[in-house]
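Appendix B, example 12.
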Amino acid sequence: MCGIVGYVGPKQAAPFLLEGLTKLEYRGYDSAGIAVFDGNKINVEKSVGRLSILQKKVENHMPVGTIGIGHTRWATHGRPSDVNSHPHTDCTGRFVVVHNGIIENYLHIKERLIAKGHVFASETDTEVVAHLLEEYYTGDFEAAVKKVLAEIEGSYALAFMCQDHPDKLICTKQDNPLVIGLGEGENFIASDIPAIINRTRKTYILSDGEMAIVTKDSVWVMNRQGVPVTKKIFEVNWDAEAAEKGGYEHFMIKEIYEQPKAIRETMTGRLAKDDSRVVFDELKWTKEDVANIKKIVITACGTAFHAGIVGKYYLEQLARIPVEVDIASEFRYRSPLTDEHTLAIVISQSGETSDTLAALKEAKRLGARTLAITNVVGSSIAREADQVIYTWAGPEIAVASTKAYTTQLISVFMLALYLAELKGTLPPERIQELIKGLRALPGQAHELLEDVEPIKTFAQQYGFNEDVFFIGRSLDYAVALEGSLKLKEISYIHAEAYAAGELKHGTLALIIEGVPVIALATQHDVYEKMLSNIKEVKARDAVVIGIAMKGDEEIKKYVDHTIFIPATDKYLAPILAVIPLQLLAYYAAVTRGADVDKPRNLAKSVTVE
């Protein structure tokens, strides 16, 4: 997730571009850049790091010109660096492009263009777009853009500038947001409304497959075939602060609603087109590599640790490799039995978690092969690990992790399928079935988020209880751990998660009349036993909220309330089941008046031991 801005009009472009990027820095903050046409050539200024570094760099020699584009980056391809920062240019400097998203087939295009003599400066997928424009351009800017769009595959919002056409910008989108701000004698492009809200309230919201030609006096919108599209003006009535959160009250709820997109992005380019296998170009493991793995150790902290617990089930049951899961702060103090036949997987949203980094270094010292699963390209953990799987969730601003967790689950699940295929532990038809289930997840997550009113009601009804318990079996127990953490960290309610089969070994003593119990029952192989455990807590007069799959009418007989998730494979249920738990935690915190995005005593990235 990156931030895009563009301007064409009578005023100097650079001040708006920098102003707009400050409003979008929450979308990406590892580098930034602007490109402005000065009447003779396009001048590009960019730098790694926060936007303030770029602002300081140009403050005494601001690029001059009345048309330009800008970008603030959250890296997916290529580590954060000056050269990998956007905007990107072709060999001649005639074309400049900024991009939010992922070009899936960039490597094939890049190899072809290099063979034809193109010289690439960066490691990014975006740069191929600029070189394709150069390749196809014969004087018609619009025609060249259409040819580029016919060739690239993936998700994107793109803005283009050409020095031969100094009066226009061209932009387009597919699966990533893009808006056009309508001014008087000037027009704006942005990936999100906060960038333009101080300049205009009138916007066009582009739809997938649409392309716009933007000049200072006009905006032409068309489809990829050039057929004009009539757009309705969307009048923004949010204030600036609300606009930054996309109209949501808090970043946390915004990020919960971003999960369908984040899930889709993390799968992008990693599933074969025929759904036959998982493709990890960043790993390129062979059967011999995998045969050498005798044990897997997963180590992480907090929410990432809970993702690791789910991962244990995935890797053991699908790939049939023994897995240990360790809290990172404990790993290096227990003299772990780790050697060259161990794969150590470390999971961290930020890639900077101090304890997880220390555990990674210890695993390497003991001879293990190391694999990081992280959301931040170029982070300390990404640099230290032998190999990396990036979760393309985009920046997460709220302290309580939501979309980072679900994309970690997606990543570990795809890794389990990847290993299963190499080891031959799953038949091809089962792998294909699970991949089809993966592809359905973004739509199912969206479906879950369409009706949250019952969850709001439950949160308001039970939000002032001081104790809540979560129970589940198998994968549901792993999800219960994350649900309880979410509730306690943002609402300050005492919440505990228990393996449901452990109730009779002590936990039942805590169940009293009226105490809320969240019971997850999505795993069919332990379903009857789970119902038995629900009956146990109901017999002690607990109030039970059941989480089950659609079509399960049986559970209604034994619980007070039910939240249904879309029907899916049992292995994919954790990815959907956690979403109502996130919502319960969020609305409970709102009910109690807590500071949702910045809970007391907590920080987003824990960089001290």
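The radius of gyration is 25 Å. The mean pLDDT is 92.
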